[in-house]
Every structure is written in C-alpha cells, then in structure tokens.
Amino acid sequence: MRRFVLIAPLTLLAAYRCQDAKGRVTFSDEPCGPAAEIVELEVHRPSAAQRREAQRRADDAVAITDEIMRQRTRQRALAREAEIRFHEERRLQAEREQAEREAERSRTAGARTLVSDRRPPPPMGPPSKTPPPAHGIKPPKRDRPDLKPPPKRPPKPRPLHPPRP
Hints:
- Keywords: Plasmid.
- Among the domains are: 13-43, no CATH class; 47-107.
- Helix content is 42%, strand content 8%.
- The chain is built from 1 helix and 3 strands; from the N terminus they run E-E-E-H.
- It has a 3-stranded antiparallel beta sheet, with no helix packed on it.
C-alpha cells in the first residue's frame, strides 16, 4: 500500500482584513468594505530536498504501518491456532476421561452387584417417628434453646386502600 503526500503551493496570495462595528476582525479573499486592509501572505514553497525528505518520511511511515499490520495478522493466526489446539486437547481429554469412566464401570459392575446383595432388609413393622442415627451420629436434642426454630413473625398488615399513584 503506497500513500502519497501532496505538497501544493497556496493559490491565495492576498487577503483582506475587515473590522466590524463591534470590533470583531474577519479575513476574506474579497474586500468587505471601504476600510478593508490588504494583508500580504507569505507562501512557503518547499524546495526539492524538502519534498524528497517529506516523501521519505511518508514512505517510512507506510512501511512501519505495513509491518505492524503483518505482525498483527501473524499474532491473530497464532492465537487462532493456539485456540484450536486448546479445544482439541480439551476434547481429547474429555474422551480419555469418558473412556476411563467406562472402563471403571465395566470393572466394578460385578462388585456393585455383590455389594447391593449385602444390604440389610428393610425393617418390618410401623415406621418410627425419628429416623435411626446414621453412622453413629446422634440426632440433636430439640429441648436446647439454641436449636429451637425462630419464632414466626405475624404477617404485615395490609393497607385498607391501595396506594395512590
């Protein structure tokens, strides 16, 4: 991509300075009244060396911009490849874990049947009010004040009339 800098001399060589009744100053390329003053403009015309230097700086800026764009494109491509690798590794890891779970299920399928056969039969008779303690843990006593449920609050009274908008 190549960009050009256009350096053109000014075509306006004179301007008119005008002042209105409020004291505001304006400049124009046409006389704005009998009191208009002609203001000479200095026109800068760059030499050939200055034009070459400006063109060289513009070319350098274009080269730097192009290099930055190439680097960004490379970085985006590398990031995309890394993302693809990451997702592929996650997919493979999930497949490995699934295969391990299935292998574990197939190994323990017979053992689970034996364990399920050893469960004690359910008790016969009416169910008790409190369930038996699990694994030797005693149920908490309900007569302690710190274990009582909090008292119920009465419901909030409703207004007799709906609120006005």
